[in-house]
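Progress note, sequence design subtask.
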């Protein structure tokens, strides 16, 4: 019998337990900054539709960065208030 859906992929990477939310957010921000730099560098070596697509990805990464920054600011405020 053939399964209608495949098994989910095995996760190769995990996040260690016990890491603070603030440390996770800092790492997330650094990862997003790296992804943004990579996508922009690659986009500037392209032309036409492919360049526009990659710049669109860079814009989504920047949006995610803004969201992560907002969450991190809220965590810092909560930590300071406590």
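Output:
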């Amino acid at each position: 019998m053939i399964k209608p859906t495949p098994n989910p992929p095995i996760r190769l990477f995990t996040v260690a337990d016990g890491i603070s939310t603030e440390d996770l957010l800092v790492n997330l921000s650094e990862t997003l900054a790296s992804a943004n730099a990579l996508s922009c560098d690659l986009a500037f070596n392209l032309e036409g539709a492919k360049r526009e697509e990659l710049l669109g990805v860079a814009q989504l990464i920047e949006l995610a960065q803004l969201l992560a920054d907002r969450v991190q600011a809220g965590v810092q405020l909560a930590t300071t208030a406590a």
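The chain has two helices and no strands. Work on this subtask will continue into the next period as scheduled.
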